[in-house]
Amino acid sequence: MYSLRIQNPAVGDAFMVGQVPRACTVTKVLGETSHTTTTCTFNVEERAFGSRPATGTDVLTSDLAADFGGETSTTFSNSRIAAEAYLVATVSAVANAPAFVSIGVICE
Within the chain, which residues score under 50 in pLDDT? Predict the structure, then answer.
């Protein structure tokens, strides 16, 4: 599992969750925020080795709205990740200023 915690997430944030050493298949993406009324909406992108700053390909079919209770998704538009690719979390929306969002990506 690859994981990341973003402090004070903001729209437009893009942080590396991890780099996969060999090809893998994403089986689940998880997200959880800091407080009961907060949400952080994000997707995870696959970005090719050597081009991490460039926009990648979304892993999830639609963005995941993480909340205090935690949310998961197993619906993918791109689950097969190439060897040495980067997994990058990109924030598209936040509500009520979460102190943090925790993101996890499970690959097999």
Answer: none
